[in-house]
Amino acid sequence: MEKINNKEAISLPISCSLGITVLVSSQIIASHCLSSSLINTGYISILALVLTFIICKLYKRFIGISFLDITEFLGGKILKFLVGITFLFYFTFTASIVLCKTVNCLQIVYYPMTHPNYTVLLFAITAGIACNLKNNGFLRATFILVPIVIIAIIFIFVGNLKNFNYENIFPIMGNGWNTTFLEGSTNLFTFGGITYILFLPQNLKRPDKFMSVSIISTIISSALLTFITATIILMFNRNVTSGQLFPLYIAVRYIEFGTFFQRLDSAFLLILNIAICSFLGIYANLCLEIIKEISSISDTKPISFPFVLLLYACTILIDAKFELEFMQNQFLKVFFFVILTLGLAILILANLKKSLKGEIRNE
Amino acid sequence: MSKKMLKFYAIVILVLVFLYAFSASYTSDSVDNISYVIALAVDENEGEKNLQITFEFMDTSTFSKEGSSETKSAIIDTVNASSINSAINILNAYIGKQINLSHCKVVVFSDKIAKKGINAEVSELMNNIQVRPSTNIIICKGNALEYIQKSTSQLEKILTKYYDIFPNSSEYTGYTSNIMIGEFYNYLTTKECGNLAILGGLNPTISPSNSSGNPSSKTTGGSSSSSSSDSSSNKPTSSSSENKPKEKPDNNSSLSEMIAGNAPILGERGTENIGLAVIKDGIYIGDLSALDTLCHTLINGEVNSFLLTINNTEIYEHYLDIELFENMSPKIKVDIEDDNPKINIEIKLIGRISGIKDGINYSDEPNSLDLDKISKVAEQTIQKHIENYLNKTTTKFKCDIDYFYNHAKRKFLYIQDWKNYDWSSKYPSSRFNVNVKAKVYYSLLHSD
What we know:
The complex is a heterodimer of chains A (363) and B (448). Chain A is mainly α.
């Protein structure tokens, strides 16, 4: 991957979080926390910001070095390989779940007679093409797309203002402190961009701006999560938030400006589909980067389509063999925390090792 | 084979695969193969197939280059089935095109079927991706089929546009409300409150054959079907006896009694939409009159302006028409300190005198109008109406149809505590404190 400037870099973690937030996590937050969803959103946003800050601080002693190289510094090539494989599996799995959810929604809305495998294939090929674009084409596309998606989300919020029932945020603590804060902290998985941040420094043109890039992207992701959750929770009760379609799409269906400006859901779904293509492109590219680092492959282009075939296989496997709800509610959450803990542990230990080595050298 | 050729073949194969894969969905959703339903009516049917479902379509072939200059006829098909989905299935086979509900503007339930419960039907519709949440929901006093047969407007040639705009009158009359199926379903699945639907009725002065736009009607019942172009011969048995013109009920239809079907209207259209239907646990339990509906829309801040006629000889010897506007959103507070919730409602209005029997210059003595006195009388009148209406909700309907529970929820920290409070059982013992403030101005354009 070529070096990227700060603005492009900000859009990448946002795009990673957006796919998960719109399709998966906003529904989970709204259905679990109910009336305390907004408090939970604020709480996990603060947690995400703190974590981002910690990651940036831990990275200060490794400016411009890739996360897997730090892992190698800590535990050698074997650890680098194991960590790389774990992260590779996580990113592939996350991309598959988001793709699976997208395809299921598309099948309900537009393609009732088309087998979902074909739609998955279409998206997988798009991700493959994104990986093969020259001059970081997909990154630039993401940089253009993210503001469009942000505007769409704000538009959905504003367009539905007349449909909001502001009393839906009461009882303010919802199902209790435990659901809102303790169990609710597991909703942190919505910030998938945090895991992406670990792999960002080596790709930045100006690695010294890593902290500002990360913090800004987390703040924007938090704001979007708040807008999405607020739209859902102020409009619907539990019956809608636990349905098969993602609630933001149902919210768009309520937007009407007179008798002329109606049915904006199609436009939203179009924007979302393009955003999902970009999301898959980012994840696929990241996975190829990891493969490149843990193996001796110098050019990832020849393996881009074999990789998207893996993504395709993974998605249809989840669709066919597993309960999607269980996968996104339980497995994705647990996996996110394993990855986050692993990432933080490696950075902390690498910092300690560097400190010790420095002390020895000083002695 | 060169690399370029391989790439070319791969792309061609992929395109063919996708063309094949998506063509089925495209074919089924192609505009040519779809017939769009604009209204759906659900009646009761005796027998195993307990629903009689009527679909109204626009005959798009009659659309001319002149646009909306001529009245477009509607096509009406009726199916006897056990559910809406099975009715769609049967009718799909009958009409040869796939029925699509994405342009369905209204869903009408007959009062008979609504009294038995419409939970299942509304859930079925809400789970259909084609049904828009903005579809209006109507409970019709009488036959739902007849309602959509008679739903035509001389002023609006295109029927779909008429369906689009007819609930708008709620904003400037307050005699009905723009109730949509999305919102209806949200409240239907909330245990704490009752629910409301638009009340529709048949105008008894107009016979079906007299109503304009006289649509062709066909009935399909499972495997057996009958069809005829004469709508009157295919009416359900309950309505066939109503073909002869009727007289309006002999009453003055005061606002407190006026509901759809007994409004003092003589017109070409055979339907009326005045008042609201009260639903509790999915079952239709009663009606709100025009005045009750006005009170409901006032409490909920739904009405922009409305007309109040005062007939009080103390302030003026004849009637006074006052157009009132909601100055700001109503303030509602609920106290739940004991088992009898205390509900405080504060409504602020401004108004202008828009009609008096004799045009006078209000400042000329001794005929001058005391605007403060008029404001006071307006306040008292509205307050009395609202109190009567609220007492009706607690004593007659015994359910919260003004969604006060939303305000009561504020007092609780946890959902479990709120559930334990059991608002629906407490609401009937609620006490109300209604406070209306009105400021009336004189604003006649011409006076003597």
